[in-house]
Amino acid sequence: MLVVENPLARAVISLQGAQVMAFKPSHRPEMLWVSPKALLESGKAIRGGIPLCLPWFGPGPDGKSAHGFARTREWTLAEARAMPDGSTYLALELRGDAAVSELWPHAFTFRLEVLVDNELKLGLTMENHSQQEAPLAFAFHTYFAVANVAEIRVGGLEGSTFIDKIEHSARKTHHGEVTINAVTDRVYLNVPAQQQLEMTTGRVRIESDAKCAVVWNAWTNDKNIADLGEGNHVGYLCVERGDMADHAVTLAPGKTYRTWMILADH
Ligand code: TA6
User: Fold this and answer.
1) Is residue 116 pLDDT above 80, yes or no?
2) Is residue 207 in contact with ligand 1, taking CB distance under 6 Å?
3) Mind spelling out the 3-state secondary structure of 153-176?
């Protein structure tokens, strides 16, 4: 784990998965949630923080493991800089190797830039070095820490069409704010750049150029997920940003795809 402490914030980043595990701006509670049952084992996905689902989202092609391999591989710290304004800049990279090419047959570099400021700024760059088109989908699968998920309101998805994974992927239109009172697993398409989480401890702003937002809470299914655990759904809400489903990408040979996300408390 990399630990970043500066006058503006504190962050913890796992080299496995380039996964931001904690982000706490000064004078504000921790923004991210990690399951009390999270596994910290090499090669196993870590339940919490901001897993990067990449280079696919959801079940893998041909039975490959869910959400891609980027979250279970060891990334390399490529750069770390203390910035003049007190923030801290890190860049982590993942490159293809023989094991990975069996899963996704493309030479590539994935790069995650992290700016630990009074906001958390993430920039994700995906380069296709191969001679073939590469199918690509991704998500910043953020687990937000909440006092009680049933009290959260999510704004910024009003009027958006979503795929309801709980109801056979039916397409529906959302009216009003999103609240959680049952198992919820939705992919919102073509969403506005910003969403807001309204909670008793304050507000969080999520901003990204990615085209989709995912809202997920396991509710009482938590007991069926070993690294989540019965009753623990209360403490988190996933509001993710990414390009997937109708907005999955085809990355041409030699091309680069860039995306970003900001989490802020204002
Ligand atoms: O983003 C929502 C989702 O795709 C859900 O369908 C749910 O299964 C969740 O991710 C967790 O996936 P994981 O592979 O981390 O158990």
Assistant:
1) yes
2) no
3) EEECCCCCEEEECCCCCEEEECCC
